[in-house]
Design brief:
Belongs to the UvrC family. Keywords: Cytoplasm, DNA damage, DNA excision, DNA repair, Excision nuclease, SOS response. Helix 6 (175-190) runs antiparallel to helix 7, helix 6 (175-190) packs parallel to helix 8 and helix 14 packs across helix 15 (539-549). It is built from 18 helices and 20 strands. The protein has five domains: 12-86, GIY-YIG endonuclease, CATH 3.40.1440; 94-231, no CATH class; 243-353, Nucleotidyltransferase, domain 5 (2-Layer Sandwich); 382-521, Nucleotidyltransferase, domain 5, CATH 3.30.420.340; 532-580, 5' to 3' exonuclease, C-terminal subdomain (DNA polymerase, domain 1), CATH 1.10.150. Strand 8 (243-251) and strand 9 (254-263) form a beta hairpin. It has helices at residues 32-40, 47-55, 67-81, 129-143, 158-161, 175-190, 193-209, 213-231, 283-297, 313-322, 334-374, 426-438, 455-467, 499-531, 539-549, 552-557, 560-564, 571-580, and strands at 12-17, 23-29, 58-63, 88-89, 97-100, 109-112, 121-123, 243-251, 254-263, 266-276, 304-307, 328-331, 382-391, 394-404, 407-408, 414-417, 448-452, 474-478, 483-485, 491-492.
Length: 581
């Protein structure tokens, strides 16, 4: 794409779009012209950004007053459009919250995945459902708040009989005493444990003084439960402050953010957030995006959030202030806080390793399922899949895609220009490609070969393997019914939900994509050469035509007016283009 628009040298947000108008990436900039031009003015060392730029056909922008507003607008637009290449929180819509319906006469407590503006208090989010449920059960046991439906039943439920609810439904507790318990639960979730105990002790003594012994006993039991909870919490900050600690670490094209929630100096929660990072953006960008998202989805946050030192802390703070949130971001300070940050990062590393092991386990299950489905006596760890692509017998190419342990091994991918076959003959082309692939010794370690097609493609691939005197199992996967050909008349049909079938479909579709991609690149190069024969069109203008319209067919369909809108294409050249095509 050529930057023809006059881009303003102002702060704002830019939206990179594909030919179909799909938003691919949203970014912010202090200077829009400088930032956008940086994608196109120099050779990109980041291959992922280069891939993004190759897909960009149009760029829009929104000018903002300053960089702070740009950061907020960028965050909101990413949330709205969810572009493929942007940093995204994974599964953020599904995080559970604890909800207390404080507007009710006798408030209830619930776990919910929706937070709506209904006057209730929300706490969270909690990234692990199990952790949210555990805390919820703890609150039930300690504060005995009702968890029944919004409308209270006419009789006591099981929770009352097993001492998990005060049963306001049958008047076992008055409104004031019940709401005192609710207030204590809120203070506990907010980290104001000391304040809660002081208030409850005062209220208990007051009830004793007026001989309200039953009410005093209820409050006494609540105090004991809170004290037991507090005694099990290890104080990490001697100042007993309430602070959230946040850190992020990267892993491949993802990142993992960890949060320690400290209330009254003790850790009361740990949350782990998985973040996609398709463009491998730097840590400062990741941190600012995550903090703004975290502040937006979280409730009952402390006044201070601690992170490692970052150059853009002031920008993040300005953005949070713009959102009217009374929270400040600070760098960790002192031995205690630095030790806590190290501990948090150790937890994040453990989570990354655990996720890696989980992926490996899932892959091993899939590989074993494939072994069983094909009745093999070994695990097919190295898989190679072949496909053919051509345009009515022209630009004929083949692809070889390799998976190891169920995942693409792109450094082993290969593509081939067909040499020995002319015209439309996919069957013999498969034989040539498999044969050429196996001519290289490093490729002979393949555990199983998959070809896209049916019985004839299978026989041709098997013949190529036999010719190399190898004993590699070969199967074919037919698209129409997703049948697996093992022999000429031996066919296996697997369940659509089978992990083995899904793996075969994945490698087949990847080999198809890789073959088509190579075929198109060859055609584009040849079409460019063809266009260059027209007087007045050089390499740059030929590429501009192909990039703008996508294919020779689309160039042929374009009107003279559309062609002459491109820089350097006058009416005479446009007529020559139409004449050639």
């Amino acid at each position: 794409m050529k930057l023809d628009k006059k881009i303003p040298e102002l702060s704002g947000v830019y939206l990179m779009k594909s030919a179909s108008g799909t938003i691919l990436y949203i970014g912010k900039a202090k200077n829009l012209k400088r930032r956008i031009s940086s994608y196109f003015d120099k050779k990109q060392e980041n291959s992922r950004i280069a891939k993004l730029v190759a897909k960009v056909k149009d760029i829009d922008w929104i000018i903002t007053e300053n960089e702070t507003e740009a950061l907020i607008l960028e965050n909101n637009l990413i949330k709205l459009h969810k572009p493929y290449y942007n940093i995204q929180l994974k599964d953020d819509k599904t995080y559970p919250y604890i909800k207390i319906t404080i507007k009710d006469k006798f408030p209830g407590m619930y776990i919910t995945r929706q937070h709506i503006d209904d006057g209730s208090l929300y706490f969270g989010p909690y990234t692990k459902v199990g952790a949210a449920q555990k805390l919820f059960n703890l609150l039930k046991h300690t504060f005995k708040i009702r968890t029944c439906n919004q409308h209270m039943p006419d009789r006591a439920c099981l929770d009352y009989h097993i001492k998990l609810c005060w049963a306001p439904c049958i008047d076992k507790i008055d409104e004031k005493t019940y709401n005192m318990s609710v207030k204590s639960a809120i203070e506990f979730l907010s980290g104001d444990i000391a304040k809660s105990l002081t208030r409850l002790n005062s209220e208990m003594k007051k009830n004793i003084s007026i001989m309200q012994f039953e009410k005093a006993a209820v409050i006494r039991d609540t105090i004991k439960s809170i004290q037991q909870l507090r005694d099990h919490q290890h104080v990490m900050l001697q100042s007993r402050k309430s602070i959230d600690f946040i850190s992020l670490l990267t892993s491949d094209s993802n990142a993992v953010a960890g949060v320690f929630r400290l209330r009254d100096g003790a850790i009361v929660g740990k949350e782990i957030y998985h973040i996609s990072n398709p463009l491998n953006e730097d840590m400062e960008t990741l941190t600012s995006h995550f903090i703004l998202r975290y502040v937006n989805i979280s409730f009952q946050l402390p006044p201070v959030i601690k992170i490692k030192r970052a150059h853009n802390i002031s920008l993040i703070n300005d953005s949070i202030a713009f959102l009217k949130k009374n929270i400040r971001i600070r760098s960790v300070y002192g031995a205690e806080e630095k030790a806590l940050m190290r501990m948090l990062e150790e937890n994040i590393r453990f989570e990354i390793e655990k996720e890696k092991q989980h992926r490996q386990f899932r892959a091993s299950i899939t590989i074993k399922a494939l072994k069983d489905a094909l009745n093999l006596n070994f695990l097919p760890k190295y898989m190679a899949c072949f496909d053919i692509s051509h345009l009515y017998g022209n630009y004929s190419v083949g692809s070889a895609v390799v998976f190891f342990n169920g995942k693409p091994l792109k450094k082993r991918y290969r593509h081939f220009r067909i040499k020995s076959i002319t015209g439309i003959n996919d069957f013999d082309m498969i034989h040539e490609v498999v044969s050429r692939y196996l001519s290289h010794k490093e490729n002979r370690k393949t555990d199983i070969i998959v070809v896209d097609g049916g019985a004839i493609q299978l026989q041709k691939a098997k013949a190529a393997v036999r010719a190399k005197r190898l004993k590699i199992p070969v199967i074919a996967l037919a698209k129409k019914l997703e049948e697996i050909y093992i022999g000429e008349k031996e066919i296996i049909s697997l369940s659509k939900t089978s992990p083995a079938l899904k793996l075969l479909q994945q490698i087949r579709d990847e080999s198809h994509r890789f073959a088509i991609s190579y075929n198109r690149s060859l055609r584009k190069n040849d079409f460019r050469f063809l266009l260059e024969q027209i007087k007045g069109i050089g390499k740059k203008r030929a590429m501009l035509l192909l990039t703008t319209f996508g294919s020779m067919e689309n160039i042929g369909k374009a009107s003279l007016k559309e062609l002459t809108q491109l820089p350097g294409i006058n009416r005479a050249i446009a007529k020559e283009i139409k004449k050639l095509i």
